[in-house]
Design a protein that fits this description.
Strand order of the largest sheet: 1-2-3
Structural class: mainly alpha
Strand content: 5-15%
Largest sheet: 3 strands, parallel
Shape: globular
Order of helices and strands: HEHHHHHHEHEHH
Helix content: 40-55%
Number of strands: 3
Number of helices: 10
Radius of gyration: 17 Å
Length: 179
């Protein structure tokens, strides 16, 4: 999402863009994705949200690892404990929630940019996870970019670098190396 916004605003500084299994606010099927019950966390907010999760970061995060992965067992107990400890650090959950809170403004900004400038000309590799956005990732990017190469990360959910890093790196490297 951040890389897309950067490529929009600084096309002379980006020669290729890779987006991986994350919808872009305001682009393509964004409204449908944002309303899906599966993305309830996009709207999970309010004055008490941090208090509700404090001390329960692991419970909150397990939901994502379990439901957005092709195989939850790929998230070892060690990995889960590590990430939960990081998110339990002061300010970490606040920062995570702020990313979601920014989506409405991000969507408005991306729509305004597209209306003013048209499609992104930068070549884009749009990778979807087989058990994640899949081919929809390329459809999303075709709504915003004129040169889209689709790709599918097999045997993976949303957490591509945890679930299938070899295929992810191979696809990205092939795209980056292509003249």
């Amino acid at each position: 999402m951040v890389a897309f916004a950067f490529a929009e605003r600084y096309p002379d500084r980006v020669t290729k863009l890779v987006v991986i299994d994350a919808p872009i606010p305001g682009i393509g099927a964004w409204d449908e994705i944002a309303r899906s019950p599966a993305t309830w966390h996009f709207r999970f907010g309010g004055p008490d949200v941090e208090r509700l999760v404090k001390g329960r970061e692991r419970i909150y995060l397990d939901r994502f690892w379990n439901e957005f992965s092709a195989d939850p067992a790929r998230f070892t107990e060690r990995s889960r404990g590590h990430y939960a400890a990081l998110y339990a650090r002061p300010g970490a959950m606040h920062a995570a929630f702020e990313q979601y809170r920014a989506f409405d403004q991000d969507a408005a900004d991306n729509r305004a940019w597209a209306a003013a400038h048209g499609k992104l000309a930068t070549p884009v590799l749009a990778l979807g996870a087989e058990k994640g956005l899949g081919a929809q990732m390329a459809d999303i990017m075709r709504a915003a970019a004129s040169d889209v190469t689709p790709g599918l990360i097999p045997n993976s959910g949303h957490w591509v670098m945890q679930e299938n890093p070899t295929a992810t790196v191979r696809l990205v490297q092939a795209f980056v190396d292509k003249p």
